[in-house]
From TrEMBL:
Name by which UniProt lists this protein: Hydrogenase maturation factor HypB
Domain CobW/HypB/UreG nucleotide-binding residue range list: 61-221
Family: Belongs to the SIMIBI class G3E GTPase family. HypB/HupM subfamily.
Keyword Amino-acid biosynthesis: no
């Protein structure tokens, strides 16, 4: 178990390509109990966050994905493209170090609070609770959370959000959903970014989509380019639909 986040090796196994032999790794009882206690404590704080967000009619989106997928660039484009019909919007930025991403959002005219996790590899419900207190979003608003760039541990931790979105880029390759199924299977929307680069890569978008649908038959998939603007209207429509109905 990771000493910081509680991610588990309970279901891990060792195997050699070309051989049917494999072995499993098992946790001791104390380690498993610690992990369960950690996640249970987080779940209670997440419930408190969700109750508070719901009471104030605030829609919260948890955006997770690979490092370099373009999450911050997408949020920049979202802030810049917000029209008069949009609800008030604010951003919680998660990174191990620096305030770079929060500064980028502020430079676009958005409100942002940076959460630095130190050695931690993900955001958790307690961090979000503190971030919301600092951000103080107004009722009937939209809060976008950019989680730490990681395809493993963020999937384990409920933040209290109403919606989970996963983001990858065509430059990540075709096998990301198959390698990291837990995160992609648990999201209602998957964004495939940087499609402007597809002509220069040996990447089959349909193969990626098929992998995603094997994991989650109901998943919505958007392809876009946060840098050129291609496909951004579909993302804005998706976001506004959730904000107006939550």
């Amino acid at each position: 178990m990771c000493g910081h986040c509680g991610c588990s090796s309970e279901k891990a196994r060792l195997s050699e390509p070309g051989s049917e032999a494999h072995s499993h790794l098992h946790q001791d009882g104390d380690s498993l109990q610690l992990q369960q206690a950690l996640l249970a404590g987080n779940d209670e704080l997440a419930r408190q966050n969700r109750d508070w967000l719901t009471a104030n009619r605030i829609t919260c989106i948890n955006l997770m994905g690979t490092p370099g997928a373009g999450k911050t660039q997408l949020l920049e484009a979202t802030v810049k493209g917000a029209g008069a019909d949009w609800p008030p919007m604010a951003v919680l930025e998660g990174d191990q170090q620096t305030q770079n991403d929060a500064r980028r959002i502020q430079a676009c005219g958005g409100r942002a609070v940076q959460i630095n996790t130190g050695t931690g590899c993900h955001l958790d419900a307690q961090m979000i609770q503190a971030g919301l207190e600092r951000l103080a979003p107004q009722p009937n608003s939209l809060v976008l959370v950019e989680n730490v760039g990681n395809l493993v541990c963020p999937a384990l931790f409920d933040l209290g959000e109403q919606h989970r979105v996963a983001m990858m880029a065509v430059t990540d390759g075709e096998d990301k959903p198959d390698k990291y199924p837990h995160l992609f299977a648990g999201c209602e929307l998957v964004i495939i970014n940087k499609i402007d680069l597809q002509p220069y890569l040996n990447v089959d978008l349909e193969k990626i989509k098929a992998s995603l649908r094997r994991l989650n038959l109901r998943v919505e998939i958007l392809t876009l380019s946060a840098s050129t603007g291609e496909g951004l209207n579909a993302w804005r429509d998706w976001l506004l639909n959730r904000a107006h109905h939550d």
